[in-house]
Each structure stands twice: as C-alpha cells, then as structure tokens.
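Put briefly, the fold is written as integer tokens. One such record reads:
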Amino acid sequence: MTTNPNRFWVIVILLGWTFDFLFWEKPLGINFAIFMTLCLATGILLLRGDGLRLSHRSGLLLLPIAVLTAMTFIRLEPMTVFLSVVMILFLMGVFALTYRSGEWPRYSLLDYAFGYLLLAGSMIIRPLGLAAENRRLLAGHSSLSPSEKRGAWIWPFVRGIVIALPVIAIFASLLSSADPIFAQRFEGFIDLFNIDNLPEYIFRLVYILVFAYALAGAFLHAAQKSDENVQEKTWVSPFLGFTESTIVLGSVVILFIIFVVIQFQYFFGGQANISIEGYTYSEYARRGFGELVAVAFFSLFLLLGLGSITRRENESQRRSFSLLGIGLAGLLIVMLIAAFQRLALYEAAYGFSRLRTYTHVFMIWLGLLLIAVVLLEVLRRERAIGLAMISAALGFIISLNMLNVDAFIVNQNVRREIRSTTDQSFAQGRADLDTQYFLDLSDDAIPPLVRAFRAESMPESVRKKIGAALTCKLYEREQSEYVIPWQGFHFSRLNADAAFRQVSKELQAYQVIDEDWPVLVETPDGEEFSCYPYYED
C-alpha cells in the first residue's frame, strides 16, 4: 500500500464501484457474500504485498464470518438477516483491529469500544496521511521515472474533476431555476451525452468515493495499528467501596429471594394457577416472561458494573463478592426458567410468532452467559467477560440461522393446529392461531407450508387454510413486476419457486377474488380467506 499508493487507490476505488454495481437498486442476496469476500481477499493480499502477515488467531475469525456470510443468501427472515449482517460487520472490524496481533481473545468490553473509536478515526484520518506522505516523497525526489511522473500529474487532475462535478451540478441547477433559457440550453447539452439521470450518477460517484476512502482507512489501520498488544490495565479504576457495593448487591439478592419464594407456585404451577387472582390465560403468560427477561438482562449489567468499579482489597472481600454474584446469577437462572415456562405456555395457547421465537432462543443464550460470567468472576478472569458476551451474541445469531425461524414457526403452528383438531382437551380454552400470520412470513416459510399442504395425514380443515395461504403468497408473487437481477440471487427464493411448482395444479382449485381490497381467496368448498395479514403479536 505504502510502496505503491497509486495502485492502492485504484484498487479501493474499484471496490467502491463494485459495491455500487452489486447493491444499487438490488435486493440483498448473493451480492453481500461476494462483496465481503472481495473485501477480505483484497485486504489480505494488499497487506501480504507489504510483508504483513495475518495472525493465526485473527484467521480464526474468518470461520464465523464465512458461516454468517453464507447464511445471508440462504435465510430470508428479516431479523435473522439483519443480525447476521451486523455481526459480520462487527467481526470484520475486529479482524481489522487485530489483523497482525491476534489479540482479540484478550479484549475486554472497553477494549472493543476504544478499538472501534480508533478504527473510526483511522477511516477518517489515515487516507489523508497516506496522500500527504506520498506528496512528501514525490517532492523529495527530483528524478522520477516516467510512470511516477504520469501518476504525479494524473491524480491531481482526477481529484480536481471529482471535486468540480458536484460543485458544477449544484450551480447549474440553481442557474437553471433562475433562467428558463439557460435551463433549456443546459438540458440540450445534457441530452448530447444521453445522460438522463446526471444527479443520480453524481450522487453514486460521490458515495463510491466516500466508501472507497473509508475502506482505505480500514486497510491502513490493519496495516499500521493492528500489531498493538493489549495492555493488562483497567480503563476505569475501582472507586466504589466494598461495603456500598455489598449493600447494593445483597439487597438485590434478598429481593430476588423473596420474589422467588412468594411466586414459586406461579413459576412452576403451570395452568393450574392461571385463574388465581382473576388472571386470564393470556395475562398469566404475557405478564410473566417479558418482565422476568428484563430483570435478568439488567441484573447482569448491574453485576458487571459493580464488578468493575468495586474495590476488593483482600481475599475475604473478593470471596464475599463472588458468593453474592453466584447467588444473584443462580436466582436469575431460576427466573429465566420461569420465564421460559411462561413463554412455553403462551406458545401452547396462541402458537409461535417471530417475537416469541427470538425471545425463546435469547433466553437460552442469556442463561449461558450468566453462567459464564459467574465462572469468570470466580476464576478472576474478568477481562474475558467481553469475549463471553461476543460469543453469546454470535451463538444467538447462529442459532437463529440454524433454526430457520419462519420455517420453525410454520412447522410448530401447523402441528399445534393438527393437535387442536384431534385433541379436544388440548383445544379447550386455547385460542386458534389465524393462519393468516403465515402471509407475513418470508420465502423461508414456503417449503414447509408446501410439505404440510401435501401431507396425506393432514386434516382437511388445516389443509384448506394452508392452501389459501399459499394461494395468497403465490398471487402476491405473480403481481410483482420487479425482476430480480443475478446480484440478488437467493436460495430461499429459489427453494420457494421450486416448492410452488410442486403444488401449482392443486392450488388451481383456489380462486383469487381481486375485484376489491383486500384480495380474497375462495377455497374449493366456497369459504373465503382474506389475503390481508392481520394478526396480533
């Protein structure tokens, strides 16, 4: 990079143009995986060209990045894709921060925070530093080769054009508004080049250059600053006395003990306690798990915060604080089990939704994180808590990808409907989940819906609802005039198309009525089914 800055700038600008080519007005699909691969491969090759080797420990980050990147064109459920993209960008930032040192396993939470601040600063400052250094080198050599002379002349010319284009566009727009004759002549001049979308092209050129500039800063940070070792120091010195901290933590532990003792029958009594104190089934389930998860989440941060600011001057104080932390974590795990049970009751009554599925998986990983935090506190490995939190977040996101949220919702809710049609004791007192919820799911849900529709053991009442939902989804698909380019290729859409072809003949028995809004589907027995996905979560 520093040995041949002209080539470096050409490469990063090409990456910026590639970003525009892959993503401008195109849906997320295989384009994201292609671009992430290009960025990683280009960065590694550029650094190797300068003799900078990738640390083996930092190379381990490529595995989760590769897994999540592949999932972005396999899964289409919005939250799963969003969290995967966020985690990929986070891990790539960690990759740039520790490219040469491989120190990321030793990072604390504050190391990550300050590291990202430094990376953001490098993305702003370091490309300017490289350009200034290049000018100094050119000024210090009187005898330049012909290629160096061409580079010295071309780049100021290119920079001048790039800066002038948006300035000219702004003034030309203002002058066109001020004088209609000038506006007509200016439009005629633009038509000579057959450029109908000049403002759009200028905007795209600007963001390509801004993106290339930021990418250059990330590459330069990896080259120049990623070899720094983590210092075994605390960013915030403990200032809270042991007595004050013990009172705070002990009070919370006592409160939780009282809560668990008094509410124990509600935690594990199940449906038998639903009518106590006049609670309905819905209120019992809803008012349980949300608040308990919130308590567990904020209590974890209370424990982490007190652990970082409390002065523990001797072994007795350290042991006492650890015991209180173990007690708090144990009570929180009991609360999470209770919340998990209440959520299960709610799902048994009303079926699964995206939010309930997210919460279910989140509680499992939150419980594992609590156990890890307590173990690290006891082992005096507080710095590793940051790694534990990152691992828990990564595990949560990978779990959602492996679970396939929308397909999981379809499978669970279809089984629940089948059971409700055959088991009267199960159906009693439980609300029937409207299968119109399926209409709002992504293409991930189409293959399991088709499998359920074609299952020979499926009760006819359930098959009818699934067939109507599939007809609505197929109608919506056929009404779309947007042609997805190859950059937006997605396995979820491919699998959905293949699944629809399997049931195309059977769905012809369902008639679409689109004379008014909302669109209706008439089932073979004459029942009407709305294609508007109204539901309550």
Notes: Residues 315-350 form the longest helix (36 residues). The mean pLDDT is 81. The two ends are 53 Å apart (CA to CA). The first strand starts at residue 511 and ends at 513.
